[in-house]
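Dear all,

This email documents one entry for the complex benchmark we are building for the journal club exercise. For each entry we list the sequence lines for every component of the assembly. Then comes the predicted three-dimensional structure of the complex as a token string, followed by one or two observations. Please use this as the template for your own entries, and keep the labels exactly as they appear.
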Amino acid sequence: MTDFLLTQIINYGTPILGAIVFIGAIGAPFPGTLIVIAAGAFSKQGILPWATTGLIALTCVVLGDSLSYGMGYYARDRILQRFQNSKRWAQAESTFYRWGGMSVFWTRFLITGIAVPVNLIAGTSDFRFRRFILYDLIGECIWIFGYGGLGYLFGNQWEVVSNFLGNVSGLALGLLLLVAGIVLAVRWLKATQLKTNS
Amino acid sequence: MTPARQRLLFISLIVMGLIFVVFFGVRFVHTFREFNGHRPRHFSQLQSAPAETDVTLIRDWMTIGYLSHAYQLPPDLLYEALNIPPNGNEHKSLKQLNKKYYPEAPGIVVEKVKAAILANQPPQSPLTPDTPGPPATAIPPVKP
């Protein structure tokens, strides 16, 4: 899949890159980060015009994110029908409202594997679109211009950069899961202790 | 959520987290060493894209057009080396060309392209501008 996408980018240029990041943002399992870094290297080689490419890719990825937010938003009624009276749903919604901005920001470029679920949750919960788009835009600017810029800087060594950043992303996701697990474990232990004391 | 389910949830999160951390941690250390050995080009070199010379960077997803651009060689030269016509093959990757023209020899197209590029590269000057010359004191003064 990756090889096929890279061939299409060198054949058809920026429109294909835009389409790839757009489709990736609505949930297709494309290697988006690798593609963005490669596009930076292709810009360095003069295959893609860097400014136009960056702007088109940014526009497409933000549109894709907005669409997946929209999917969550329009699924909200169905979900609320099921969980409306659930205390946990209200709790989850208020937690997302508090931490949602940071979740949207970090999942744009660092923990990209959970970006689409975060978009859907943001749409489903009471997270405002204006807030979503602000964090989304900042995060995606880092993804497109920061990661693409690394591809540009490192040129023909872009594969090394891509491998490195892919592992950083996996490591960050692992740490996030670990911290979430530990937090839940501590809460569970406290609740169990309270039960035994009473 | 029942306490048993809660316990299952946090244990699964911790186990998955540990697997991810160990797996990507090991890969991170390896790639960090590799990455640390590379440096971006100097800013003054970024303005121009010099011709690529390293043929080990050739991959089978690349096209003849792309290679001709990157290595600054005429595409016809590469098509000739592969003994195939340019028409209809402009957008095909080396892998696709291999499958179409040399199905019995996987990888031969990449090898042929590498050989053609190496054979047609301009000769490298022994001293590049970045290469420091020998120190002035290295040559002993000649006594009459």
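Observations: Residues 53 and 71 of chain B are 6 Å apart (CA to CA). The radius of gyration of chain B is 26 Å.
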